[in-house]
Amino acid sequence: MTRNKLNNILGLPGIIFLSIFFFTPSLFIFRYIFGSRTRTGKTSFDKIYFDSFSQLLDFNVVPIINKSVVTAFFVTLICFVVGYPFAYYIKKLSTTMKYFSLFLISIPFLTNFLSRTYSWKILVSKNGLITKYVSMFYDVSSLLFTDFAVVLGMVYVYLPFMILPIFTSLENIEDSLLESAKDLYANPFKAFYYVTFKLSLPGVIAGVVLTFIPSLGAYIIPQILGGSKSMYLGNFTVLQFIQASNWPLGSLVSLIILLFMVFAINLLFKFEGQRNL
Amino acid sequence: MTYALKFENVSKSFSTSDAIKDISFEVEKGEFFSLLGPSGCGKTTILRIIAGLEQPTSGDVYINEQLINDIEPHLRPVNTVFQSYSLFPHLTVKENIIFGLKIRKYDKKEIDSSLEEVIALIDLKDHLKRKPHQLSGGEQQRVAIARALINKPEVLLMDEPLGALDLKLRERLQVEIKSIQESTKITTIYVTHDQTEALAMSDKIAVMSKGEILQVDDPETLYEKPTNKFTSNFLGNPNVFKGVIKNEKFISDEFEEIAVSNTKNGPASIFIRPEIISFGFNKVTSPNVNCVEGVVEHILYRGSWLDVIVSVNNTKIEISKENNFDLSIPDEGEKIYLYWYINKTWVVFDDQK
Amino acid sequence: MNRTVFLKLNYIFVLIFIYLPIFLMVGLSFNESKYFNQWTGFTLQWYEQLFQNQNILNALYNSMIVAVVSTFLSILFGFGIALYLFRVKNRFTSFVEKFIYVPIVIPDVTMAAMMLVFFIFLSNYLEIKLGIATTIISHTAFNISFVTVLIGSKLTRKLRVLEEVASDLYANHFQVIKQVTLPFVMPALLASVILSFVLSFDEVVISMFVTGPGSTTLPVYVFSMIKKGVTPAVNSVSSLMLIFSLILVTGVLLLSRKDNLK
User: Would you call C180 and B151 a contact, using CB atoms and an 8 Å cutoff?
Assistant: First the structure.
């Protein structure tokens, strides 16, 4: 058997699997967008429909997009404000403490998402720790099912996504660069801004994208912490599929989430590309 | 005459560099054959073609009169010592060495006796149970050589095996490799960019540049009688002058006449090696020597020798002299005479490649 | 406020922020009281009840089958693709190299939607029912990419040279893979086994779309419990899931650290 044949035999099964069970399904989404929901909840394909597009307005999807984007924006902002100093601090720690801190922050990165979201629910529900604290200042009995709880929950879950890439890019900055900046009469603030911060930008951008995207399409967190009344793109999509049986509209909204993602990733690559020039 | 290896009009094109063009050469059985040239000249490509790791675009390769173009690397009777040692990190030194025998399912007895044989040649006894990362660079390279040698290949390929080592170690291993090769009589193709290494070790050297072989000769002929400008320049550090040869005289902007021993006329360059030039404080007149007058411009003290840069007729000639006690060192600015044998003035005509 | 003090406070705050809810949840799962705002004593009764709950046991069984089979398939396919991309360089493979990231970054809601419409569409023509099989297929579809990328990062120039050395030393294609490639990528291979198991075992949204009645996975079942409220049962099952993935993930992190030190 020749070398090439063997290599093809290694790769082709997986590629064929992905073509059938990933690539092809992604094309079906497009077909469904141009279908129409019939009265029984089935989707009709007898001609090209544009129902799903007009329903974007009829079902008030635009405010939902707005709300999702604003929420994702605040989540990203908070993650950055808290995450950057955190990454900066552990970079300066001794090697052992650094890796231990990194370890502590990596664990939630991968562990059970559902349980972590639920654990947060305990804190914000009636008589929960955070509720108790907040109710000392404001008149609330439960923070559960508020937008505030959703934002905090997302920050809680996605914070490691911000910290890890920032840490990686900070770690790659050589100390000698900072020293030479100071040697060239930069004060600590200027040295930080012109050297450390600028060089850590790729990590910041990666962190922003990694936080923004899942926040935008989140379903579980709004569902658990926001309740059924508060609508975000993620749970609106699921609603169309599971309850409303409006698959064309669900397909369209899920595609919109995907487009936001593609846009954000392109932005990431554009920044990366500029840096490499 | 039997040939261990033969290249017939072999070409290989790459989109990048390292291509080779129409290469033909033969290597005798038992010969130590070096491919010498600057990086990117295609010498490693030739080695990889022999090993079967690259396919030639055109041309034929023979080992022991057998065409091997279509034989897969693992079926070829050749073994390679790679530049970066490339020992298997997960195997011990012993497991590394016997890898080739184990793969071919030799029985334990054969493996043990082969191992002993190799260890007699290369001293690795104390390291057999270690892992590669516990060895120094020189030791790792010894293991890599043993790992290739134990298979008793028809042709042993070595790709700059000493490139990563420091000077002292390199010189010691040169001697070691040469003596192993002489005692085993294994046909060896040795790739290097280091001319002194090639000159010291080889029976024959092929000088390469830009994917072509320019000259194949034994070290002495190559150094003393290069047939082309590239070889003349690449080996040693000669003084080069461009001019014309007319009636056994070299004439240029700098020199009125320098006697040469070539009878041909035409535009040419002359090469005068720094070590063949002598100097003194009196003019030398002899029909066998050229003598020119100059002023000492600079003396570079190199320890075991001296480089003296002399300005002669608006140009500079470099000479190098052993630093022994009968050398009277001139002062900078002093007038001296340079002289050398006429037949040591090496001429390469412009129409020679 | 002093800069260092601020950084240190922020550091402590973040760690508390991340770990407090987890510890609280695990602690509460041992609380005798049904109400989480009062501690009446230590008990294991919620865990005992968990193991008597047939629905949870069924869901756990389904999850295990899905995770094991989809891990096996994604290692098989993903490792194959990684080797293929490592050895063959042409236009097609450079396309695959980029495309392979899509299943990783695609939002789970989008992927869930497209898998659902695909299977339902197929069910018009073939005997397909939503269930364990469709869940396995969907999980495999996103896990393949994780495996390919994780193993691919270990397929370096160094390995290529070692493979050449092996073939120079008479190893045929299969021997090269067995003797050199496999040992070289073993830590990454183990890490990707654990990772794809964890990813599959924890997955909620896609499973929710493509599982049928009776084939619910554990996270989907727990999710429906969570939506109802905070109960001791949810505390204990969530704690178990969390600790289970915590152990596995710690394994992955230790493996990759060991690999980097080598």
Answer: no
* CB C200 within 8 Å of CB C142: no
The answer to whether residues A241 and C116 touch, using CB atoms and an 8 Å cutoff, is: yes
Q: Widest CA span of chain B, in angstroms?
A: 75
List of domains in chain B? 3-233 (3.40.50.300), 237-349 (2.40.50.140)
Give A54-276's CATH code, choosing from 1.10.3720.10, 1.10.357.10, 3.90.1640.30, 3.40.640.10.
1.10.3720.10
DSSP assignments along C246-257, one per residue: HHHHHHHHHHHH
Candidates B41, B34, B39; CA nearest to B12 is B41
C168 vs B53: CB contact, 8 Å cut-off? Answer: yes
The conformation of residue B69, written as its DSSP 8-state character, comes to T
Note whether B269 and B241 are within 8 A (CB).
yes
What single letter denotes the amino acid at residue B30?
G
pLDDT tens per residue across all 353 residues of chain B = 678 999 999 999 886 667 898 999 999 999 999 999 998 888 999 999 999 988 899 999 999 989 999 898 899 999 999 888 789 988 999 999 999 999 999 999 999 999 998 988 888 888 899 999 899 888 999 999 999 999 999 999 999 998 878 888 888 899 999 999 999 999 999 999 999 999 999 999 999 998 889 999 999 999 888 888 888 888 888 888 888 888 888 888 778 778 888 778 888 888 888 888 888 888 888 888 888 888 998 888 888 888 889 988 888 889 888 887 666 778 888 888 888 888 888 888 887 76
Residues C54-261: name the CATH superfamily: MetI-like (1.10.3720.10)
DSSP calls for B214-250:
EEEE-HHHHHHS-SSHHHHHHSS--EEEEEEEETTEE
Beta carbons of B216 and B25 less than 8 angstroms apart: yes
ipTM score of the complex?
0.90
d(CA C143, CA C153): 16
Closest CA to A68 of A244, A259, A265, A246: A259
Show Cβ contacts of residue B178 under 8 Å, excluding neighbours closer than 6 positions.
Answer: B32, B200, B201
Judge: B103–C183 Cβ closer than 8 Å, yes or no.
no
Q: What is the DSSP string of A148-189?
A: HHHHHHHHHHHHHHHHHHHHHHHHTS-HHHHHHHHHTT--HH
* Domain residue spans of chain A: 54-276
Cα–Cα distance measured from residue B145 to residue C163, given in angstroms and rounded to the nearest whole number: 17
Closest by CA position to C133, among listed C60, C221, C220, C215: C215
CA distance C13 to chain B (A): 43
Residues of C whose CB is below 8 A from A236? none
The minimal CB distance from B88 to the residues C168, C180, C262 is found for: C180
Q: Are B344 and B290 in contact (CB under 8 A)?
A: no
